[in-house]
Amino acid sequence: MENKKRILTGDRTTGKLHLGHYVGSLQNRVKLQNDYETFILLADVQALTTHFENPQLINGSIYDVAIDNLSIGLDPEKVSIIQQSQIPYIAELTIFYSMLVSVNTLRHNPTIKTEAKNYGYDDMTYGFLGYPVSQAADITFCKAHLVPVGDDQLPHIEQTRKIVRRFNDLYHGNLIEPEAMLSSTPRLMGLDGNAKMGKSLGNAIYLSDDADTVNQKVRSAVTDKSRISVKDPGHPEVCAVSKYHQVFNPGEYDNICEMCRGSAIGCVACKKKLSETLNALLDPFREKRAYYEAHKDVVRELLQTGTDKANRIGKETLQEVKEAMSICLK
Ligand code: TRP
Fold first, then answer.
1. Which residues, judged by CB distance below 6 Å to any ligand atom, belong to the binding site of ligand 1?
2. Global pTM?
3. Which atom of ligand 1 lies closest to the CA of 46?
4. Residues 153-167 pLDDT 10s
5. 7 Cα: distance to centroid of ligand 1 (angstroms)
6. Gap between the Cα atoms of 290 and 294, Å rounded
7. What's the CA-to-centroid distance between 253 and ligand 1, angstroms?
8. Strands, sheet with 79-83, edge to edge from the N-terminal-most edge strand
């Protein structure tokens, strides 16, 4: 176990996770958990960078996000779930790394730019601008080799790699340069036709949604607007539902498209098929979720054990970093 390479990845605790997260990163976590020693970070400090005015939301989401991760089949015997704010070594590493990153580099980070625009920041906080540095500390405190993430996170992994290279060059350090691992599935669009499924966009199907909610969300999905009746030939290439069949129902996808074009299936039946597929995926998750919801003490214990382990490892890494930088009493 201890000789395995490590994975670190995680989520901001700003609300429940949805199918976009599942397709983009969660699925990979499950696949890789046997081959890597895995750490799942509940990024509550990073959540503060955008939601500092609503700390209750962040706190309330810690269990939600932990249970989302457990519900999809991450095995608590194999995976450590850890709480960022309770690992002071991450904060300390952030300070040391912050000397190695220029403000201009952070300002040019494409994900920072997009998020700042979406949140309407014209004068962003120091904490927000600097979160990629703190994310480098998240990844390197445990010397993770691999970081399964969605493509919006690539600039941050690149930033981490730069910090690691600079640190190792300047101080002859032994930090590991991590690799990003992207999902092979393209980004999931919103059922409303928006390019992205997002919490803030109000178009998400949550892992915690019950079957009725999923049915209702799928029923209201945007399809081919030019198709008024079943007799009109459909255009799957412009239909959000077809994109979902492609991701969640790949075996039937070609057939469904052909039936749609040939008027052999209407939108109502096609949506029903999709709801069934999604509910079949989500049902086992719902069962696991129900267990953990009813046993919050078990979840609490898991977070404590995971976080303790992270602190043992983080302490060593910080010591190494300080020694390399000659920040110690001789
Ligand atoms: N930035 C990630 C997100 O918004 C969350 C995150 C924090 C993360 N620290 C990380 C992801 C370290 C991967 C590795 O979802």
1. 8-12, 41, 43, 46, 135, 138-139, 147, 149, 153
2. 0.94
3. 7
4. 999 999 999 999 999
5. 12
6. 6
7. 32
8. 79-83, 37-43, 6-12, 146-149, 179-182
- Separation of CA 311 and ligand 1 centre (Å): 18
Is residue 292 scored above 90 in pLDDT?
Answer: yes
Nearest alpha carbon, ligand 1 atom 8 = 10
Going by C-alpha positions, the residue among 125, 109, 114, 112 that lies closest to residue 158 is 109
Distance 47 CA to ligand 1 centre (A): 10
Give the distance (Å) from ligand 1 centre to CA of residue 260: 39
Quickly list H helices, the chain: 19-21, 27-32, 44-51, 55-71, 88-98, 103-107, 110-119, 126-129, 131-140, 154-171, 211-219, 240-248, 250-261, 267-294, 296-324
Please tell me what DSSP assigns to residue 25.
Answer: I
Do residues 16 and 153 touch, judged by C-beta distance below 8 A? no
Give Dmax (Cα) for the chain: 83
Q: Cβ distance 163 to 97 under 8 Å?
A: yes
CB 24 within 8 A of CB 65: no
Centre of ligand 1 to C-alpha 289, Å, is 23
Report the DSSP beta bridge partners of residue 9: 40
| CB-based contacts of 272, cutoff 8 Å, min separation 6 | none
- Name the CA dihedral angle for 63, 111, 128, 16, rounded to a multiple of 10 degrees: -20
Name the band, by pLDDT with cuts 50, 70 and 90, for residue 71.
Answer: very high
> How far is residue 199 CA from its own chain's centroid?
12
Instruction: Compute, in angstroms, the gap from residue 324 CA to the centroid of ligand 1.
Output: 26
pLDDT at 301: 98
CB atoms within 10 A of CB 222: 16
The half-sphere exposure of 19 on its side-chain side, counting CA atoms within 13 A, is: 25
Which of 115, 135, 159 should be mutated for ligand 1, with most atoms under 8 A from CB? 135
Test site for ligand 1: of 6, 7, 9, most ligand atoms within 8 A of the Cβ: 9
The DSSP symbol for 13 reads S
